[in-house]
Amino acid sequence: MKNKYDKIGVGVAVGCFIIMFIHLGTLGTAGLFIPQLIKTLNVPVSQVSLNVTFCSLTGFVFSLMVGKLRNKVSIKMMILIGSVAGIMHYLISAMSNGIFLIYLGSIFGGVKFGFGTHACNAAIISQWFNDKKATVIGVVFSGAAFGSAIMMYISGILIESVGWRSTYLVFAALHLFIAIPVNLFVLKEIKILRKNIVNNNYSNSTKSSNFEVYDVVTMKEVYRNTAYWMLLISMMLCGTLIVGFKTFVPSYWQFYGLSALTSSKYISIFMVIATISTMVSGNIADKYGNKAYIIYLYSSFLIGMIFVLLFSNKLGVMYIMIPVIFVAVSYPLYGSIPATVVTESFGAKYYDKVCGDLMAAFFIGQSIASPIIGGLRDITGTYSSGFKMITVFGLTSFLLLLIAIKKSDVGIESSCI
Q: What DSSP state is assigned to residue 297?
C-alpha cells in the first residue's frame, strides 16, 4: 500500500468480499431447499427448480441495466438495492404456502443477483485496482464460495432444527444487519480521482501504452467483433455448469438416501475447496495467462462431471469426494470469467458495459440449467441425463472461449491485467 488510496481500496475490497459472502453465499444454498419445498408444497422437481430460473432471468435483466445505469445510479447504490432485494427474497419465501410466492421471492433474488454480485462488485474493484486486478477479483469473489460453504453447513443444521422457513428468516437478517451496513459505511467509489490513480499506477508500466490503445475501441467495434458474440454464447453455456452441479447434486444425494445434514456437509466441503480455488485463480491468470487459466478451469470441470457420471448411484465417501474436488477446483467458472478475463479483450473504457453484457448471458445460462435438469429428472427419473447435458455445454463453452481468444482483434492474452 503506497498511499491512502491504496488503503481505502483494500478496505473496499474487504467490503466487497463480505457482500459476496452474504449475497451469493445465501443464494448458493438453493439446492439444499429443493427437497424441503417439494415435500411441503407438494409439487414436482421441475416446478420447484423454476425458482432458480426466475432468479436467473431477473438477474439477466438487471445485469444488463448495470452498464446502462452506470452514469445515473452509482454502483454502490445498485449493490444497496441488491441487499434490500435480498431481504425481500427471503421474507417472501419464508411466508409462502404455494409455489407462486417462491417464484416471487426468487424474482427479488434475481434483483440481488444482477445488482449485488459479480458485475457491480467487479466494477468497484476495477476503480481501485488496475495492476493485478485479476488477483484481487479472485480473492474478493472467493467470498461467494466461502459464503456458500458456511451457509450450506449452517442451513443443514437450521433446516433440521427449526425448519426451512426460519432458515430463510435468518438469511433475511444477515442482509439487514451485515450487508446493508457494509454498503453504507465501507464501500466507496472513485470518481474524479480515478484518472490520476490510473496514471500513477501505470506511469512506469510496460502495459500502459497498450492499455490506452484498448480504451479507444468503440462499442460499435465491440458489437461487430465476432469474438464478442462467441463470448456471449460461451458465457451463456458457462452459466449452466456450476449452478447445475451445485443446485442438483444435494438433491441427487438426498434422492439416494443421504440426509439434508449429511448432504450439506459434503457441499460445504465442496465450497471450502471452491473458496481456495477462487482465491488463487486470479493469480493464475495474472501469472500464466488467460489461456492456461481457461484450460485449467474447464478441464477440471469436465473431469469432475465425467466422474459424477461414472459414479452414478454410488454414495461412498470416495465416490462423492473425487467429483466434488474436481468440480470445486473449477468453481471460478461461476461468474468470475467475465470479470477476470474476457472483458479485458475490449479495453477498460467499456469494462462495466461489456462485463454486464457477458454476465447477462451468464444469467441466461443459469436460467435454463434448472428447467433442463429438473425436466429431465421428471421425465427419466434420474439426474444423470441433466448432468450429461451440462457436460456437453461445458465442452462447447470451452471451445468457443478458446476460439474467441484467437479471433479477438485486441487480444485477451496481451490485455489481461
A: H
Please state, in angstroms and as integers, the Cα–Cα distance from residue 32 to each residue in 255, 267, 348, following that order.
Answer: 12, 9, 38
Side-chain-facing half-sphere of 401: CA atoms under 13 Å? 28
> pTM value?
0.67
Q: What is the DSSP string of 184-234?
A: HHT----STTHHHHHHHHHTT-TTHHHHHHHHT--HHHHHH-HHHHHHHHH
- Alpha helix ranges (H) inside 289-410: 290-310, 317-329, 336-340, 351-380, 384-407
Show Cβ contacts of residue 357 under 8 Å, excluding neighbours closer than 6 positions.
Answer: 64, 67, 232
Question: How many residues are recorded in the chain?
Answer: 417
Task: For cell 454502483, name the residue.
Answer: 75
For residue 202, the model assigns a pLDDT of 37
| Helix, strand or coil, per DSSP, at residue 111 | helix
CB 85: neighbour CB atoms within 10 A?
24
- Which carries the bigger pLDDT value, residue 351 or residue 54? 54
Average pLDDT, the chain: 81
Q: Measure the CA–CA gap between 414 and 167, rounded to whole angstroms.
A: 46
Could you give the 3-state DSSP secondary structure of residue 177? helix
Q: What does each C-alpha distance from 359 to 16, 64, 191, 380 come to in angstroms?
A: 17, 8, 24, 31
pLDDT of residue 225: 80
Grid coordinates representing 275 are: 473458496
295, exposed or middle or buried, with CB in 10 Å at 0-12, 13-18, 19+?
A: middle
Handedness of CA 259, 264, 265, 270 (dihedral sign): positive
Give per-residue pLDDT as tens, 102-143: 999 999 999 998 898 888 888 888 888 876 777 788 888 888
- pLDDT single digits (tens) 63-104: 878 877 877 888 899 999 999 999 999 999 999 988 999 999
Render pLDDT for 160-183 as a digit per residue (tens, 0 to 9): 899 999 999 999 999 999 999 999
DSSP 344: G
CA 252 – CA 312 distance, rounded (Å): 10
Q: Is the pLDDT of residue 208 over 80?
A: no
Q: How far apart are CA 99 and CA 92, in angstroms?
A: 11
Cα distance between residue 400 and residue 101, in whole Å: 38
